[in-house]
Write a structure and sequence with these properties.
single chain, about 180 residues, mainly alpha, three-stranded antiparallel β-sheet, 7 helices, about 10% strand
């Protein structure tokens, strides 16, 4: 399974729309999303039609391999009921997971890990906040989150940039502060 750090970069429909063919050499390619409209699940392009590559940390490789093995077992048990699909996150019969059910799974995982349950979308905000506070360029944060414009990223995370700027000025104050006995 993807851990919170990877889920945080994706929207709900993008997570359930992932295909095994979208994973290559520690890079996740966001090419699809699954949406429900008028009672029907369907595949669509990502929001704003923006496809993007999201690098995965090495620590995701083993859990993804484990998940794929478990899914292969489920596929074998389902037999002919399993459709020819390539979804990373599928039901026991190989169909795409309902986007609204993703939060239920997320809640179960968070509770079992002893974590406070938050909205799934707040995990995206947390990721952006941490990346911004770590000094990652806003353009990179924009690409990771799949925002269509830098202004969206900056409008939402300006407070973090301002906090980071204050911290930078504090460092500058310390560096430039005159020391006693020195000119």
């Amino acid at each position: 399974m993807l851990d919170g750090r990877q889920v945080a970069r994706l929207r709900r429909g993008e997570i359930v729309g992932l295909r095994w063919s979208d994973l290559d050499n520690r890079v996740l390619y966001v090419r699809h999303q699954v949406q429900r409209r008028r009672g029907v699940l369907y595949d669509d392009d990502p929001k704003s039609r923006r496809r993007r590559a999201v690098p995965l940390p090495a620590l995701c490789v083993a859990p993804l391999r484990w998940h794929r093995l478990r899914q292969a077992d489920a596929r074998a048990k389902a037999g002919e009921r399993w459709p020819e699909s390539d979804y990373v996150f599928a039901t026991r019969t190989g169909r795409p997971v309902e986007p609204r059910n993703l939060y239920r799974s997320f809640t179960r995982v968070a509770e079992s890990a002893g974590l406070r349950v938050i909205r799934l979308h707040d995990v995206r905000h947390g990721t952006a906040t941490l990346l911004t506070a770590a000094g990652v360029a806003p353009r990179v944060v924009m690409e990771v989150l799949g925002h269509s414009q830098i202004s969206i990223t900056m409008d939402v995370y300006t407070h973090v940039v301002q906090d980071t700027q204050r911290e930078a000025m504090s460092h500058m104050d310390r560096l430039l502060r005159r020391r006693p006995g020195r000119q």
